[in-house]
TrEMBL record:
It comes from the Bacteria. Residues 54-288 form the ABC transporter domain. It is a multi-pass membrane protein. Keywords: ATP-binding, Membrane, Nucleotide-binding, Transmembrane, Transmembrane helix, Transport. It is found in: Cell membrane. GO terms for molecular function: ABC-type transporter activity; ATP binding; ATP hydrolysis activity. One of its GO terms (cellular component) is plasma membrane. This is ATP-binding cassette subfamily B protein.
Length: 298
């Protein structure tokens, strides 16, 4: 009986590992599925990043030809600056990030990084230059260490810990009984929205990209966590060209430029104060969010 139970235990372990691996692979395919829509042009060179100036040049885009999603979207982010995109749900904000990462190609116009059309360079080099902190971070069913190191598989343990420290998640990890070896994901520890976002920030710090895209979570974090994460992002956005897809306007008042997107068109642009003073679409969005933020008096 003992002899039999060992291989059975072993098989059980193998089964769990294989299942886990398959579910991770499935996740990867889910993520990569969209990527298959575009291909490298033959002999494409690697992207040569200098300051990482980003330019959307008269970009049109549709997923389905019957429905335009972006129309003549034209803006630049000078090297190291921050531009925030705001607009009502479905305006096309996240689509900008998908196009930049080349999950899809533009229908018309161009996207340029330091003057190079992103369609003319290898996808590997393009994606290596861009760090995305997504709305919802995918956590693999693996250790928290693996989940951070994923940003740079060749990273040393010291680098992983340094990234976790900078993302202010190191102390939390150390407080777990199994520390960095703690299992996370669906079958492990469930992390809160703020903790997951910190894992994403740590991953991104490890990757050290020239260009940063922050797709702000729609689901509100509590005010304190949001403030802390905001400060962390300001830290990592410094010196990097940053595109913020904003859902809460309070987080972008300091952006170098704010772009207001409505049904795929830029309808307003400028600094926070100027846009408020203009009393247009942005001012209306701001007033709406201020009202939502104020608790109803009893
Ligand atoms: P939110 O603030 O709700 O995140 P958003 O401004 O980021 O919205 P997008 O995600 O860019 O909006 O979507 C813009 C439009 O494109 C939406 O109407 C959406 O339904 C549509 N869309 C998004 N992804 C696809 C897709 N893969 N295929 C077809 N249509 C899509």
């Amino acid at each position: 009986l003992i002899q039999l139970s060992i291989p059975l235990n072993y098989l059980g372990m193998v089964y769990r590992e294989v299942k886990q691996a398959l579910s991770n692979i499935q996740r990867m395919y889910d993520l990569l599925d969209e990527a298959q829509e575009v291909a490298d042009s033959p002999g494409a060179p690697a992207l040569a990043v200098r300051g990482a100036e980003l330019r959307f040049e008269h970009v049109d885009f549709h997923y389905d030809p019957a429905r335009a999603i972006l129309r003549d979207v034209d803006f630049s982010i000078p090297a190291g600056k921050t531009v925030a995109v705001v607009g009502t749900t479905g305006a096309g904000k996240s689509t900008l990030a998908r196009l930049l990462y080349r999950f899809y190609d533009v229908s018309a116009g161009r996207i340029l990084i330091d003057g190079q059309d992103i369609r003319s360079v290898t996808q590997d080099s393009l994606r290596a230059a861009i760090g995305i902190v997504p709305q919802d971070t995918v956590l693999f069913n693996d250790s928290i260490y693996y989940n951070i190191a994923y940003g740079k598989p060749s990273a040393s343990r010291e680098e992983v810990i340094a990234a976790a420290r900078s993302a202010h998640i190191h102390d939390f990890i150390e407080s777990l009984p199994q520390g960095y070896d703690s299992a996370v994901g669906e079958r492990g520890l469930k992390l809160s929205g703020g903790e997951k976002q910190r894992v994403a920030i740590a991953r991104t710090l490890l990757k050290n990209p020239a260009l940063l895209v922050f797709d702000e979570a729609t689901s509100a974090l509590d005010t304190r966590t949001e403030k802390i994460i905001q400060a962390e992002l300001e830290d990592i956005a410094r010196e990097r060209t940053t595109l913020v897809i904003a859902h809460r306007l309070s987080t972008i008042v300091d952006a170098d430029e704010i772009i207001v997107l409505d049904q795929g068109c830029i309808v307003e642009r400028g600094h926070h104060a100027a846009l408020l003073a203009a009393g247009g679409r942005y001012a209306a969005l701001w007033a709406m969010q201020q009202r939502e933020a104020v608790p109803v008096a009893a």
